[in-house]
Amino acid sequence: MLRNLHIQNYALIESLDLDFADGFSVITGETGAGKSILLGAIGLLTGQRAETAAIRTGAAKCIVEGTFDIEGYGLETLFEEHEIEYDAECIVRREVAATGKSRAFVNDTPVPLTVLKQLGERLIDIHSQHQNLLLSAESFQLGVLDTLCADKTIKQRYDDAYRAYREAVKALDALRAQLSGDKGDEEYIRFQLDQFDEWKLREGEQEELEEELELLTHAEDIKEGLYRISASLNGDEGGQASALKSTTSALRSLISIYSNAEEWYERMESLYIELKDIADDVEDACERITVDPERQVWVEERLDTIYSAQQKHRVSTVAELLKIEQHFRDTLNRITDATEEVAALERAVDTAHKTLLAQAALLTAQRSEVARTFETEIASRLVELGIPNTRFAVDITLRRQPDSTGADSVVFLFSANKNGTLQNIADVASGGEISRIMLSLKSIVAAATALPTLVFDEIDTGVSGAIAARMADIMADIAGHGRQVISITHLPQIAAKAAAHYKVYKEDTADATVSHIRPLTTNERIAELAQMMSSGTLTEAAINNAREMLGGRTGE
Q: What's the rounded Cα separation, in Å, for the pair 488 and 279?
């Protein structure tokens, strides 16, 4: 429940701190005094759009803060989901800067407006004149029926089924769109793959061929150089290996008679062995290298093929070409296998659709059952509110295809005349009748929900006298079941039934016009009610009448 409201620099309100009572309260005041301003400020706490024009002239920002008692309303899970510290006393604050920036806080934790709206829907229901227009909206009518359904799991299961169906359809559509594009490219892909098949590219091939071409290009020079080296190292006469071998043999013959010769021998022996290995390797290399013009031409042509392929596909390595080839093959395989994949997704869509229709049927059955009870309760309340020949019906028809709300098309039908034809409520109900219908509806919905606070903005439009008094009784009855009801009204019959009475008034200062609101004492209530009943001059008769309406109460 709303315990306290703090407003600063909002419209005509400079600063306001107001404590709200439990039960049924009313707010009265002259037209233009600021009742709608108060309603707009409360609306900010529920996540409604903030207008910079609402900021008091000259102020940098406006602040609206509400303190709510939320114990026992099952909001712990919501707070946990959004990582907000839970407390039975919840403080909601909204700040709107003149720059247009808006910030929201719950228990001093910054929250996005989406979260504030979620919380606001669980804290306050604000009935404005705009909601009277919503009465004819199908979404509103469906929402009423679903609210009255005791078993919420049926709607939840339908929502899950609809989500699964939409995801299946989305996956199928995406695959079909992809395949449509792929199919158009199939001929191109096959042509590219034919070229890759001709090329027969191999990882590392380019580097190997470039090295081989370098060798083939300089084969004669390399072979001549190696031959000279081989002759120098391993020649029969004057070869370095032969000379080194002779030196080694001479050192070996001195070992027995000269001690230093052994170390020299071992070192020379190592040199000989290494030199001999080099000489053999050079000789082998010389024999292997051949001048092969035909091979050179082939290597050059092969490299030209690779370079052309790289240029065509705008890459610089064979590895990148192979990736492109694999992509083409994967795409072609996907096209080839598409029929089976599409068929599988079509089966999934069909299964999801059947599940959806089954859940829609259960939802329709539940709504139809609730609608019958709802029709009776609405009609009964409207008879009490001065429409004795009320006829009210909920017309439920099936749409061809379910949507996010179900398979049902709902229309509220109404007739105020005994023999009148039931018609769309928006077409035949007068303003006063709509007010009574909305109050009846709200009272029924309130009984089915755990909503702490209901705010009615002139829901008594178009009624007066005994009917207004009966509407007040209904609001008091709603409040009597552990809820807080705040009604903005111009009717004394309603104001007199409230447990608490607040008055909105304007004050003109030298600099500006300021709106105030304050609770009224019993005597002030009597005076306010008398003024509301008087067309001009306040009379003793009006005062006595007001006192009687309050049950003879006197005092401060």
A: 112
